[in-house]
Q: What sequence folds into this?
């Protein structure tokens, strides 16, 4: 394989290393360096794309806002009805109360949603099977002010990800029930445990001594037990973050 | 992207008539569309580079998905199915609006590019650079990174060879390298059939 072919493959998918590329990389420090740079760049691209574009529509608050029958175009095409002013005002007030009530009942919904969006942004993390060295893992955890008391071979994926303006450890841990994603959210305080199901993932966000911890699994797995084990295994370093 | 593929979301929807749709809030498909809408909107926004257009695309895509909901045989493939609908809807819009294109700088929504000092400013610059990529490079990049589509899936969706997709992805990333002060890799690809 030529350098050009190797770089095309790397640039096409920096995380994919087919055997012929691996063979080339083993004997080519320049292409290996190129791959390192591209993996790092790809992490930034991922983080850049993860952010919802500014000004996007607010999170969905009721089904009526979402289902196709209430489309923007449909609304545009709709004839304006001639309601009396008081009825219109009452509707607005009712809608405002309903919105506040929904948000009041779902305090961490946005956090859970952002966690799901973040995890979806790294779809290959679930299938990662690589060995994470203890040094790498400790480096990532230390950056977020925590230490994980676990055998590092259980961790198949570890990245320091940008999430809501902070670097957070994003881990995938191998369990008997399949891979489980853990995000240590030192800067996200929650008042109570919150479980959620979204886009084929089940998860829970639990309060921690510093911030919170999000644990997610694919499908309808109950992650409470894993979340408890993660809580036990985490050691929070003095708050300098 | 894992999961079973569903039939193509090709049910034509010529115009919208809300009264005939009759979606019920409790329907699983409605809940699915509800949960996916923010992600679809983000995906569409990166493709279209304009919030209002993205909202229209997603709205049309949701309507299309609702109309062809019977084609969704496997719920685990719903995400890929919906993202594909959004991409196709964007492609349709792009075809329809081809003659109405405006100069690049005018077309990019500047609210996407906040100028902030601090740790996020680098990412903001990167977002700006991604938005400036030509669609032929931006689209496969967004499909791969944001959508989780494989090279083969992108190739099928864009009617390209896998090599052509790799070339476009390589060029997209190569262009973005420069903003990190990295030297772009030589691009001798010329055509898109290098391997």
A:
């Amino acid at each position: 394989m030529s350098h050009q072919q190797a770089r095309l493959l790397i640039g096409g998918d920096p995380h994919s290393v087919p055997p012929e590329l691996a063979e080339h990389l083993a004997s080519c420090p320049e292409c290996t360096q190129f791959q390192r740079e591209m993996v790092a760049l790809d992490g930034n691209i991922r983080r850049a794309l993860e952010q919802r574009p500014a000004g996007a529509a607010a999170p969905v608050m009721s089904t009526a806002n979402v289902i196709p029958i209430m489309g923007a175009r449909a609304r545009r095409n709709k004839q304006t009805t001639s309601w009396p002013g008081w009825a219109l005002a009452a509707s607005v007030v009712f809608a405002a109360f309903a919105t506040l009530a929904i948000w009041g009942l779902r305090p961490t919904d946005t956090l859970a949603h952002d966690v799901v969006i973040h995890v979806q942004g790294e779809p290959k993390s679930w299938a990662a099977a690589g060995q994470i060295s203890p040094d790498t893992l400790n480096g990532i955890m230390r950056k977020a002010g925590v230490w994980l008391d676990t055998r590092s071979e259980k961790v198949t994926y570890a990245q320091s990800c940008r999430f809501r303006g902070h670097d957070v450890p994003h881990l995938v841990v191998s369990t008997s029930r399949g891979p489980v994603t853990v995000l240590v959210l030192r800067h996200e305080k929650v008042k109570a445990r919150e479980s959620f199901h979204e886009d084929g993932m089940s998860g829970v966000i639990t309060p921690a001594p510093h911030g919170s911890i999000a644990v997610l699994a694919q499908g309808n797995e109950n992650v409470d037990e894993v979340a408890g084990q993660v809580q036990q295994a985490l050691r929070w370093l003095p708050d300098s973050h | 992207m894992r999961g079973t593929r569903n039939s193509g979301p090709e049910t034509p929807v010529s115009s919208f008539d809300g009264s005939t749709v009759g979606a019920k809030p409790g329907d699983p498909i409605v809940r699915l569309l509800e949960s996916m809408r923010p992600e679809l909107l983000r995906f569409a926004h990166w493709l279209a580079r304009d919030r209002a257009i993205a909202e229209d695309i997603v709205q049309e895509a949701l309507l299309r998905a609702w109309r062809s909901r019977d084609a969704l045989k496997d719920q685990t493939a719903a995400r890929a199915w919906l993202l594909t609908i959004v991409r196709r809807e964007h492609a349709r819009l792009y075809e329809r609006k081809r003659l109405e294109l405006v100069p690049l700088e005018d077309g990019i929504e500047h609210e996407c590019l906040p100028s902030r000092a601090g740790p996020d400013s680098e990412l903001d610059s990167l977002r700006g650079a991604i938005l400036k990529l030509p669609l032929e490079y931006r689209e496969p990049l967004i499909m791969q990174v944001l959508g989780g589509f494989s090279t083969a899936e992108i190739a099928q969706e864009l009617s390209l060879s896998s090599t052509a997709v790799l070339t476009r992805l390589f060029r997209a990333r190569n262009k973005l390298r420069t903003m990190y002060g990295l030297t772009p890799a030589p691009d001798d690809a010329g055509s898109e059939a290098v391997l």
Chain B touches chain A through 71 residues (CB under 8 Å). The two ends of chain B are 24 Å apart (CA to CA). Residues 1-20, 99-119, 190-195 of chain B have pLDDT under 50 and may be disordered.
